Amino acid sequence: MEWYAAARQWSRDARGRLFSAPATPFDRSGTARPEFALDYFRALVSHGADGLAIAAHTGRGPYLSAPVRADLVRMARQAGASVVVGVKNGDEARSAADAGAGAALVFPVPGDTDSALRHIDQLWEVGRLPLIAFDLYTAPYSDATFAAVVEHPAVAAVKLARLSDAVACQDRIALVRDCGKLAITGEDRMFGASLTWGAEAALVGIAAAAVSLTRSVLDTFAGRDMSAFLEATRKLDEFAAATFREPFDGYVQRMTWVAGAEGLLPRHLLTDPYAPVLPDDERDRVLEVHSRLTIGQLPTRAS
Question: Which domains does the chain have, with CATH numbers?
Answer without folding.
Answer: 5-294 (3.20.20.70)
